[in-house]
Protein backbone atom coordinates (compact mmCIF):
# COMPACT_ATOMS: atom_id res chain seq x y z
CA UNK A 1 0.00 0.00 0.00
CA UNK A 2 1.10 3.62 -0.48
CA UNK A 3 3.67 4.91 2.00
CA UNK A 4 3.07 7.77 4.40
CA UNK A 5 3.60 11.46 3.76
CA UNK A 6 5.80 13.66 5.96
CA UNK A 7 4.15 15.85 8.59
CA UNK A 8 5.16 19.43 7.80
CA UNK A 9 3.15 22.50 8.72
CA UNK A 10 -0.48 22.96 7.63
CA UNK A 11 -1.19 24.34 4.18
CA UNK A 12 -3.54 27.39 4.29
CA UNK A 13 -7.08 26.49 3.27
CA UNK A 14 -6.80 28.70 0.19
CA UNK A 15 -3.28 27.43 -0.63
CA UNK A 16 -1.66 30.85 -0.21
CA UNK A 17 2.12 30.97 -0.64
CA UNK A 18 4.55 33.42 0.95
CA UNK A 19 5.20 36.50 -1.18
CA UNK A 20 8.88 35.56 -1.44
CA UNK A 21 7.98 32.25 -3.11
CA UNK A 22 5.57 33.80 -5.58
CA UNK A 23 8.07 36.45 -6.66
CA UNK A 24 10.71 33.81 -7.36
CA UNK A 25 8.46 31.43 -9.33
CA UNK A 26 9.88 30.20 -12.61
CA UNK A 27 13.28 31.86 -12.33
CA UNK A 28 14.91 28.41 -12.59
CA UNK A 29 12.32 26.90 -14.93
CA UNK A 30 8.73 25.84 -14.32
CA UNK A 31 6.99 22.53 -14.86
CA UNK A 32 3.67 20.88 -14.06
CA UNK A 33 3.37 17.37 -12.70
CA UNK A 34 -0.01 15.61 -12.94
CA UNK A 35 -0.53 12.51 -10.81
CA UNK A 36 -3.03 9.93 -12.02
CA UNK A 37 -3.51 7.51 -9.09
CA UNK A 38 -5.28 4.65 -10.88
CA UNK A 39 -3.96 1.21 -11.80
CA UNK A 40 -5.67 -1.87 -13.19
CA UNK A 41 -3.76 -3.99 -10.65
CA UNK A 42 -1.06 -3.43 -8.04
CA UNK A 43 2.45 -4.63 -8.84
CA UNK A 44 4.08 -6.55 -6.02
CA UNK A 45 6.95 -4.07 -5.54
CA UNK A 46 4.89 -0.88 -5.76
CA UNK A 47 4.26 1.48 -2.86
CA UNK A 48 3.35 4.49 -5.02
CA UNK A 49 0.19 6.44 -4.30
CA UNK A 50 -1.99 4.35 -6.61
CA UNK A 51 -5.31 2.57 -6.25
CA UNK A 52 -7.11 -0.21 -8.05
CA UNK A 53 -10.88 -0.16 -8.51
CA UNK A 54 -11.32 -2.67 -5.67
CA UNK A 55 -9.16 -0.56 -3.33
CA UNK A 56 -11.25 2.53 -4.05
CA UNK A 57 -14.53 0.70 -3.56
CA UNK A 58 -17.29 3.27 -3.92
CA UNK A 59 -14.86 6.18 -3.63
CA UNK A 60 -13.66 8.61 -6.29
CA UNK A 61 -12.69 6.94 -9.54
CA UNK A 62 -11.59 7.77 -13.05
CA UNK A 63 -14.88 9.38 -14.09
CA UNK A 64 -14.65 13.07 -13.39
CA UNK A 65 -10.98 12.90 -12.41
CA UNK A 66 -9.87 15.28 -15.17
CA UNK A 67 -12.37 17.85 -13.86
CA UNK A 68 -10.87 17.54 -10.38
CA UNK A 69 -7.37 18.15 -11.72
CA UNK A 70 -8.64 21.17 -13.65
CA UNK A 71 -10.25 22.47 -10.45
CA UNK A 72 -6.90 22.26 -8.67
CA UNK A 73 -5.33 24.01 -11.64
CA UNK A 74 -7.82 26.86 -11.23
CA UNK A 75 -6.80 27.11 -7.57
CA UNK A 76 -3.14 27.20 -8.62
CA UNK A 77 -3.92 30.12 -10.91
CA UNK A 78 -5.46 32.02 -7.99
CA UNK A 79 -2.52 31.25 -5.69
CA UNK A 80 0.12 32.51 -8.13
CA UNK A 81 -2.13 35.38 -9.17
CA UNK A 82 -0.07 38.31 -10.40
CA UNK A 83 3.14 36.24 -10.34
CA UNK A 84 2.51 33.45 -12.84
CA UNK A 85 5.45 31.56 -14.32
CA UNK A 86 6.76 33.11 -17.52
CA UNK A 87 5.84 29.86 -19.30
CA UNK A 88 5.46 26.12 -18.68
CA UNK A 89 8.64 24.41 -19.85
CA UNK A 90 7.64 20.82 -19.10
CA UNK A 91 4.56 18.77 -18.25
CA UNK A 92 4.85 15.25 -16.84
CA UNK A 93 1.82 13.02 -16.30
CA UNK A 94 2.72 10.15 -13.98
CA UNK A 95 1.08 7.56 -11.82
CA UNK A 96 -0.28 5.09 -11.44
CA UNK A 97 -1.18 4.45 -15.02
CA UNK A 98 -2.15 7.76 -16.67
CA UNK A 99 -3.19 6.02 -19.85
CA UNK A 100 -6.09 4.35 -18.05
CA UNK A 101 -7.74 7.75 -18.49
CA UNK A 102 -9.24 8.42 -21.91
CA UNK A 103 -6.90 10.28 -24.24
CA UNK A 104 -9.51 13.05 -24.39
CA UNK A 105 -9.16 13.59 -20.62
CA UNK A 106 -5.38 13.79 -20.87
CA UNK A 107 -5.81 16.24 -23.73
CA UNK A 108 -8.20 18.41 -21.67
CA UNK A 109 -5.72 18.56 -18.79
CA UNK A 110 -2.92 19.66 -21.10
CA UNK A 111 -5.17 22.25 -22.72
CA UNK A 112 -6.12 23.59 -19.28
CA UNK A 113 -2.45 24.08 -18.38
CA UNK A 114 -1.87 25.88 -21.67
CA UNK A 115 -4.87 28.16 -21.17
CA UNK A 116 -3.82 29.11 -17.65
CA UNK A 117 -0.07 29.65 -17.94
CA UNK A 118 0.87 29.01 -21.56
CA UNK A 119 3.07 26.22 -22.85
CA UNK A 120 6.53 27.12 -24.11
CA UNK A 121 6.99 26.74 -27.83
CA UNK A 122 9.41 23.89 -27.24
CA UNK A 123 7.51 22.39 -24.29
CA UNK A 124 8.25 18.79 -23.35
CA UNK A 125 5.05 16.88 -22.52
CA UNK A 126 5.51 13.38 -21.12
CA UNK A 127 3.07 10.71 -20.07
CA UNK A 128 3.94 7.48 -18.36
CA UNK A 129 2.17 4.35 -19.56
CA UNK A 130 2.04 0.65 -18.89
CA UNK A 131 2.63 -1.20 -22.16
CA UNK A 132 -0.73 -3.00 -22.08
CA UNK A 133 -2.63 0.26 -21.46
CA UNK A 134 -1.94 1.81 -24.87
CA UNK A 135 -2.81 1.00 -28.46
CA UNK A 136 -1.63 2.52 -31.69
CA UNK A 137 -4.90 4.49 -31.82
CA UNK A 138 -4.58 5.86 -28.27
CA UNK A 139 -0.95 6.77 -28.87
CA UNK A 140 -1.92 8.59 -32.03
CA UNK A 141 -4.58 10.54 -30.09
CA UNK A 142 -2.07 11.51 -27.39
CA UNK A 143 0.44 12.68 -29.96
CA UNK A 144 -2.24 14.76 -31.69
CA UNK A 145 -3.13 16.32 -28.32
CA UNK A 146 0.41 17.64 -27.91
CA UNK A 147 2.19 14.91 -25.95
CA UNK A 148 5.78 14.76 -27.19
CA UNK A 149 7.33 12.06 -25.02
CA UNK A 150 6.22 8.74 -23.55
CA UNK A 151 7.79 6.66 -20.80
CA UNK A 152 6.85 2.99 -20.86
CA UNK A 153 7.21 0.72 -17.84
CA UNK A 154 8.97 -2.25 -19.40
CA UNK A 155 10.93 -3.44 -16.30
CA UNK A 156 12.20 -6.61 -17.99
CA UNK A 157 12.11 -8.67 -21.17
CA UNK A 158 12.08 -11.91 -19.17
CA UNK A 159 8.67 -13.44 -18.54
CA UNK A 160 9.79 -14.98 -15.24
CA UNK A 161 11.01 -11.63 -13.90
CA UNK A 162 7.77 -9.93 -14.92
CA UNK A 163 5.86 -12.62 -13.04
CA UNK A 164 7.83 -12.00 -9.83
CA UNK A 165 7.12 -8.28 -10.17
CA UNK A 166 3.40 -8.97 -10.83
CA UNK A 167 3.50 -7.15 -14.15
CA UNK A 168 0.56 -7.84 -16.45
CA UNK A 169 2.09 -7.22 -19.87
CA UNK A 170 3.84 -9.84 -21.97
CA UNK A 171 7.60 -9.83 -22.38
CA UNK A 172 7.41 -8.32 -25.86
CA UNK A 173 4.61 -5.79 -25.41
CA UNK A 174 6.79 -2.96 -24.07
CA UNK A 175 9.11 -2.86 -27.06
CA UNK A 176 6.15 -3.21 -29.43
CA UNK A 177 4.46 -0.22 -27.76
CA UNK A 178 7.70 1.76 -28.03
CA UNK A 179 7.87 1.06 -31.74
CA UNK A 180 4.23 2.11 -32.15
CA UNK A 181 4.93 5.36 -30.28
CA UNK A 182 7.81 6.16 -32.60
CA UNK A 183 5.73 5.32 -35.64
CA UNK A 184 2.89 7.69 -34.68
CA UNK A 185 5.32 10.56 -34.18
CA UNK A 186 6.41 10.79 -30.55
CA UNK A 187 9.61 12.84 -30.46
CA UNK A 188 11.09 10.87 -27.57
CA UNK A 189 10.43 7.40 -26.15
CA UNK A 190 11.76 6.00 -22.87
CA UNK A 191 11.78 2.44 -21.59
CA UNK A 192 12.12 1.80 -17.84
CA UNK A 193 14.04 -1.21 -16.55
CA UNK A 194 14.29 -2.69 -13.04
CA UNK A 195 17.30 -4.85 -12.23
CA UNK A 196 18.12 -7.11 -9.31
CA UNK A 197 14.75 -8.86 -9.11
CA UNK A 198 14.98 -12.23 -7.31
CA UNK A 199 15.50 -14.93 -9.91
CA UNK A 200 16.79 -12.57 -12.59
CA UNK A 201 19.91 -13.97 -14.23
CA UNK A 202 22.69 -12.03 -15.91
CA UNK A 203 21.39 -13.40 -19.21
CA UNK A 204 17.88 -12.16 -18.41
CA UNK A 205 19.15 -8.63 -17.88
CA UNK A 206 21.38 -8.79 -20.95
CA UNK A 207 18.33 -9.76 -23.00
CA UNK A 208 16.40 -6.81 -21.55
CA UNK A 209 19.20 -4.43 -22.51
CA UNK A 210 19.33 -5.90 -26.01
CA UNK A 211 15.56 -5.45 -26.30
CA UNK A 212 15.58 -1.76 -25.39
CA UNK A 213 18.45 -1.05 -27.75
CA UNK A 214 16.75 -2.95 -30.59
CA UNK A 215 13.48 -1.06 -29.96
CA UNK A 216 15.10 2.12 -31.24
CA UNK A 217 14.23 4.28 -28.22
CA UNK A 218 16.31 7.34 -27.38
CA UNK A 219 16.13 7.13 -23.58
CA UNK A 220 16.50 4.36 -21.02
CA UNK A 221 16.03 4.47 -17.25
CA UNK A 222 17.35 1.59 -15.16
CA UNK A 223 16.77 1.28 -11.43
CA UNK A 224 17.82 -1.29 -8.84
CA UNK A 225 14.86 -3.04 -7.23
CA UNK A 226 14.01 -1.49 -3.87
CA UNK A 227 11.89 -3.57 -1.53
CA UNK A 228 9.46 -1.25 0.24
CA UNK A 229 7.75 -2.14 3.51
CA UNK A 230 4.07 -2.94 3.11
CA UNK A 231 4.35 -4.31 -0.41
CA UNK A 232 3.44 -7.83 -1.48
CA UNK A 233 7.05 -8.42 -2.55
CA UNK A 234 8.34 -7.48 0.92
CA UNK A 235 5.86 -9.90 2.50
CA UNK A 236 7.02 -12.72 0.22
CA UNK A 237 10.63 -12.08 1.21
CA UNK A 238 9.82 -12.03 4.90
CA UNK A 239 8.14 -15.42 4.50
CA UNK A 240 11.24 -16.75 2.78
CA UNK A 241 9.52 -17.32 -0.56
CA UNK A 242 12.01 -15.04 -2.35
CA UNK A 243 15.56 -13.95 -1.50
CA UNK A 244 16.31 -10.30 -0.78
CA UNK A 245 18.13 -8.32 -3.48
CA UNK A 246 21.92 -8.54 -3.39
CA UNK A 247 24.03 -5.35 -3.56
CA UNK A 248 26.87 -6.99 -5.46
CA UNK A 249 24.45 -8.35 -8.04
CA UNK A 250 22.88 -4.89 -8.41
CA UNK A 251 26.33 -3.38 -9.00
CA UNK A 252 27.07 -6.00 -11.66
CA UNK A 253 23.78 -5.22 -13.39
CA UNK A 254 24.52 -1.48 -13.37
CA UNK A 255 27.93 -2.07 -14.94
CA UNK A 256 26.28 -4.26 -17.57
CA UNK A 257 23.78 -1.49 -18.33
CA UNK A 258 26.52 1.11 -18.70
CA UNK A 259 28.55 -1.13 -20.99
CA UNK A 260 25.66 -2.16 -23.25
CA UNK A 261 24.02 1.25 -23.46
CA UNK A 262 27.20 3.24 -23.98
CA UNK A 263 28.22 0.77 -26.65
CA UNK A 264 24.90 1.44 -28.40
CA UNK A 265 25.32 5.22 -28.45
CA UNK A 266 23.64 6.15 -25.16
CA UNK A 267 25.35 8.41 -22.63
CA UNK A 268 24.52 8.66 -18.95
CA UNK A 269 23.39 12.10 -17.83
CA UNK A 270 22.03 11.08 -14.42
CA UNK A 271 23.05 8.03 -12.42
CA UNK A 272 20.00 6.00 -13.49
CA UNK A 273 19.31 7.59 -16.89
CA UNK A 274 20.85 7.34 -20.34
CA UNK A 275 19.97 9.19 -23.57
CA UNK A 276 21.18 9.16 -27.15
CA UNK A 277 21.47 12.96 -27.31
CA UNK A 278 21.07 16.09 -25.20
CA UNK A 279 17.66 16.60 -26.80
CA UNK A 280 16.53 13.16 -25.64
CA UNK A 281 17.19 13.84 -21.94
CA UNK A 282 14.10 14.19 -19.77
CA UNK A 283 13.88 17.93 -19.24
CA UNK A 284 11.18 17.58 -16.58
CA UNK A 285 13.38 15.43 -14.39
CA UNK A 286 16.31 17.77 -15.01
CA UNK A 287 14.12 20.56 -13.67
CA UNK A 288 13.72 18.58 -10.43
CA UNK A 289 17.43 17.85 -10.22
CA UNK A 290 18.51 21.46 -10.82
CA UNK A 291 16.20 23.20 -8.35
CA UNK A 292 13.43 24.40 -10.64
CA UNK A 293 9.81 25.03 -9.70
CA UNK A 294 6.84 22.81 -10.41
CA UNK A 295 3.20 22.57 -9.44
CA UNK A 296 2.00 19.05 -8.67
CA UNK A 297 -1.64 18.30 -9.41
CA UNK A 298 -3.48 15.26 -8.06
CA UNK A 299 -3.67 13.16 -4.87
CA UNK A 300 -0.32 12.89 -3.11
CA UNK A 301 1.41 15.11 -5.67
CA UNK A 302 4.35 17.17 -4.42
CA UNK A 303 5.08 20.74 -5.51
CA UNK A 304 7.98 23.16 -5.15
CA UNK A 305 7.71 26.89 -5.73
CA UNK A 306 10.31 29.39 -4.62
CA UNK A 307 11.68 27.36 -1.74
CA UNK A 308 8.31 26.13 -0.49
CA UNK A 309 7.56 22.42 -0.85
CA UNK A 310 4.10 21.00 -0.21
CA UNK A 311 2.20 17.80 -0.80
CA UNK A 312 -1.44 16.98 -1.38
CA UNK A 313 -3.68 14.64 0.57
CA UNK A 314 -3.18 11.11 -0.71
CA UNK A 315 -6.59 9.54 -1.10
CA UNK A 316 -8.60 10.40 -4.24
CA UNK A 317 -11.83 10.67 -2.24
CA UNK A 318 -10.35 13.20 0.20
CA UNK A 319 -8.72 15.06 -2.68
CA UNK A 320 -12.04 15.35 -4.51
CA UNK A 321 -13.85 16.46 -1.34
CA UNK A 322 -11.33 19.24 -0.64
CA UNK A 323 -11.63 20.61 -4.14
CA UNK A 324 -15.41 20.26 -4.07
CA UNK A 325 -15.42 22.48 -0.97
CA UNK A 326 -13.26 25.07 -2.74
CA UNK A 327 -10.26 24.27 -0.53
CA UNK A 328 -6.65 23.50 -1.28
CA UNK A 329 -5.93 19.75 -1.31
CA UNK A 330 -2.57 20.47 0.32
CA UNK A 331 -1.92 18.38 3.42
CA UNK A 332 1.41 19.77 4.61
CA UNK A 333 4.32 21.93 3.57
CA UNK A 334 7.81 23.00 4.53
CA UNK A 335 9.70 26.24 3.93
CA UNK A 336 13.21 25.33 2.88
CA UNK A 337 16.03 27.36 4.40
CA UNK A 338 19.05 28.44 2.37
CA UNK A 339 20.98 25.62 4.03
CA UNK A 340 18.25 23.09 3.16
CA UNK A 341 18.31 24.15 -0.47
CA UNK A 342 22.09 23.94 -0.65
CA UNK A 343 22.07 20.40 0.76
CA UNK A 344 19.43 19.29 -1.75
CA UNK A 345 21.34 20.98 -4.57
CA UNK A 346 24.47 18.99 -3.70
CA UNK A 347 22.56 15.72 -3.34
CA UNK A 348 20.79 16.07 -6.68
CA UNK A 349 23.40 17.75 -8.87
CA UNK A 350 26.09 15.28 -7.87
CA UNK A 351 24.03 12.57 -9.58
CA UNK A 352 24.27 14.43 -12.90
CA UNK A 353 26.99 13.91 -15.48
CA UNK A 354 27.64 17.67 -15.32
CA UNK A 355 28.30 17.36 -11.57
CA UNK A 356 28.33 20.39 -9.29
CA UNK A 357 30.71 23.30 -8.74
CA UNK A 358 33.19 22.64 -5.96
CA UNK A 359 32.65 26.27 -4.97
CA UNK A 360 29.24 25.46 -3.47
CA UNK A 361 30.89 23.20 -0.88
CA UNK A 362 32.14 24.39 2.49
CA UNK A 363 35.68 23.66 3.69
CA UNK A 364 34.73 20.25 5.09
CA UNK A 365 32.91 19.39 1.87
CA UNK A 366 35.90 20.33 -0.27
CA UNK A 367 38.11 18.19 1.93
CA UNK A 368 35.65 15.33 1.41
CA UNK A 369 35.77 15.93 -2.34
CA UNK A 370 39.56 15.66 -2.28
CA UNK A 371 39.28 12.33 -0.47
CA UNK A 372 36.69 11.10 -2.98
CA UNK A 373 39.01 12.14 -5.80
CA UNK A 374 41.89 10.19 -4.26
CA UNK A 375 39.62 7.15 -3.90
CA UNK A 376 38.74 7.27 -7.61
CA UNK A 377 35.13 8.30 -7.01
CA UNK A 378 35.40 11.71 -8.67
CA UNK A 379 36.71 12.50 -12.13
CA UNK A 380 40.15 14.12 -12.26
CA UNK A 381 39.29 16.15 -15.35
CA UNK A 382 36.09 17.37 -13.73
CA UNK A 383 37.97 18.24 -10.53
CA UNK A 384 40.57 20.19 -12.50
CA UNK A 385 37.71 22.18 -14.04
CA UNK A 386 36.34 22.99 -10.59
CA UNK A 387 33.52 20.46 -10.56
CA UNK A 388 32.68 17.31 -8.64
CA UNK A 389 31.79 14.71 -11.29
CA UNK A 390 31.28 11.05 -10.46
CA UNK A 391 33.38 8.37 -12.09
CA UNK A 392 31.76 5.05 -12.97
CA UNK A 393 32.87 3.67 -9.61
CA UNK A 394 31.57 6.83 -7.98
CA UNK A 395 28.17 6.28 -9.55
CA UNK A 396 28.00 2.91 -7.82
CA UNK A 397 28.76 4.65 -4.51
CA UNK A 398 26.94 7.93 -5.12
CA UNK A 399 25.24 8.02 -1.72
CA UNK A 400 28.59 7.58 0.02
CA UNK A 401 30.11 10.42 -2.02
CA UNK A 402 27.23 12.68 -1.01
CA UNK A 403 28.06 11.93 2.62
CA UNK A 404 31.67 12.91 1.93
CA UNK A 405 30.58 16.24 0.48
CA UNK A 406 28.03 16.96 3.21
CA UNK A 407 29.86 15.87 6.38
TrEMBL record:
> Keyword set for this entry?
4Fe-4S, Chaperone, Cytoplasm, Heme, Iron, Iron-sulfur, Metal-binding, S-adenosyl-L-methionine
Localized where? Cytoplasm
Which residue spans adopt a coiled-coil conformation according to this UniProt entry? none
Q: Which CDD domains match?
A: Radical_SAM (cd01335)
Domain of life of the organism encoding this protein? Bacteria
Checking Gene3D superfamilies in the record gives: Aldolase class I (3.20.20.70)
Keyword Metal-binding attached: yes
User: Which Pfam families does UniProt cross-reference here?
Assistant: Radical_SAM
Name by which UniProt lists this protein: Heme chaperone HemW
Task: Report the PROSITE patterns cross-referenced here.
Answer: RADICAL_SAM
Q: Which residues form the Radical SAM core domain?
A: 24-264
Function recorded in the entry: Probably acts as a heme chaperone, transferring heme to an unknown acceptor. Binds one molecule of heme per monomer, possibly covalently. Binds 1 [4Fe-4S] cluster. The cluster is coordinated with 3 cysteines and an exchangeable S-adenosyl-L-methionine.
Checking InterPro entries in the record gives: Aldolase_TIM, Coproporphyrinogen-III_oxidase, Elp3/MiaA/NifB-like_rSAM, HemW-like, rSAM, rSAM_sf
For this protein, the record's SUPFAM superfamilies field holds: Radical SAM enzymes (SSF102114)
To which protein family does this belong? Belongs to the anaerobic coproporphyrinogen-III oxidase family. HemW subfamily.
Q: Which gene name belongs to this protein?
A: hemW
Keyword match Cytoplasm: yes
